[in-house]
Amino acid sequence: MPCRTTLELNSTAIGGGKTLRERILLLPEDYLGSVQKITRRLWVHEPGAIVPRMVTYVPGLYRIFDEMLVYATDNKQRDPSMDSLRVEVDVVRCNISIYYNGEGIPMELDQKEGLYAS
Questions:
Q1: Distance from C-alpha of 38 to C-alpha of 62, rounded to nearest angstrom
Q2: I need a surface site. Which of 7, 47, 115, 117 has the fewest CB within 10 A?
Q3: Which helix (H) or strand (E) holds 95?
Q4: Which domain holds residue 93?
């Protein structure tokens, strides 16, 4: 029997009737990486310096955050008038916002999946 990838194995285990949203919620590791906290020594910005420090984070959340920044910075290539990028993290409300003043990313609703995609 030929080898199958993890994604193929998990898709088989879930069943083909699931929507993309359901598959992502059931198996987030297949789409964005680990959802378990890890602690690593990383370089972080502190007032007046960049210093090494032990940081605990969730790699999957880091990847989502990184993707949002990549989309915003890609917009600068499409819209040279963009001159502002702001990131706000509200730990009380569990909310991350990224604002830029350029054109938005063209999105369309996938009727079958019920998700927006660019």
A1: 11
A2: 47
A3: strand 95-100
A4: 33-117
